[in-house]
Amino acid sequence: MPTSFRRPPGIDAGRLLLLAALVVVGLWFWSSPWLAPLRLLVVLVHETGHALATLAFGGRVERVIVGADESGQCLSSLPTGWLPQIAVYSAGYVGSALSGALQLVLAFRFRLHRAVLYAMAVWVTTMGLIYAGNAFTLGYCLAMGAVLLLLARFLPAGAERAVVMVIAVFTGLYALFDLRDDLWLPGGGLSDAALLAAQTHVPAVLWSLLWSAVSVAVLVLAGSIALRRAAPIPSDALEAVRSAAASGMPRTTPHP
To answer: b/e per residue, 165-186, with b = 16+ CB within 10 A?
Structure first.
């Protein structure tokens, strides 16, 4: 039986256009005051990366601070050694890229939008209750956790998908924007790259370049996975399944 023509798996044009539109909107409105809560959320993602790396290497997280000016700090005690230092300082930027990539794949590819929002609500609330270093951080985490929980509970599927996609795009953009500032706008304060350079004697610009390369690679890989169309099932295989199902169905005799 001839097989009907089907489009081969590849990039989904509709998803690509949607992602491109979200990136453009994110770039255009990045500094808008009404997006400050979202920018604070991605700052918390950055600091969470530092905290997780600290715990992974046996260190102790003292407190995490998110400032109203969109600054962030993760104050912790680290074990000695060059590997923990490199991992912890790198985990902010690279962790932000990984987080954005994971959200992108879960939203586009697996459509786990509601689960992602519930998980984010639990994460934000937990960070506030355990590690908040001041009243602003605690208040923000509790308020944002409540908002995410309400969104996960009451938003319709299309709206929650849009929310997760926006958060994913902003998280990825944040990592790239901060790395851009480290590379091209030095002198604005002690960055993670400058702090790591002081520990390793490797120039900060080299760390920024490395983190930029890793972050871009992670986001490109996630984009290629998220935007790919699912491979279609050949029509002859579908016909075989239908035939097998039909042959196994009980036959009924019509009654007058």
So the answer is: bbbbbbbbbbbbbbbeebbeee
Residue 245: DSSP 8-state:
H
Q: Does 64 score more than 70 pLDDT? A: yes
Distance between CA 57 and CA 23 in Å, rounded?
35
pLDDT band at 204 (very low <50, low <70, confident <90, very high): confident
pLDDT digits (tens, 9 = 90+) for 85-128: 999 999 998 998 999 899 989 887 888 889 999 999 999 999 99
Q: In a 3-state reduction of DSSP, which class is residue 229?
A: coil
Q: How far from the centroid of its chain's Cα atoms is residue 57's Cα?
A: 23
Beta bridge pairs of residue 75: 63
Residues 6+ apart with CB under 8 A from 163: 113, 117, 151, 155
Q: What is the mean pLDDT of residues 53-76?
A: 94
By C-alpha distance, which of 218, 226, 230, 219 is closest to 15?
A: 226
* Structure token digits, residue 25: 């909107």
- Tracing tokens 């044009």 back to the chain, one arrives at 13
Angle of the 135-154 helix axis to the 113-131 helix axis, nearest 10 = 160
Residues whose CB falls within 8 Å of the CB of residue 215, separated by 6 or more in sequence, listed in order: 93, 94, 96, 97, 172, 175, 176, 179
For the segment 207-254, what is each residue's pLDDT rounded down to a tens digit?
Answer: 888 988 898 899 889 988 888 765 554 555 445 545 544 555 454 444
Is residue 67 within 8 Å of 136, Cβ to Cβ? yes
CB burial of residue 65 (10 Å; 0-12, 13-18, 19+):
middle
pLDDT above 90: percentage of residues in the chain: 39
Question: Taking a C-beta distance cutoff of 8 angstroms, is the pair 29, 169 a contact?
Answer: no
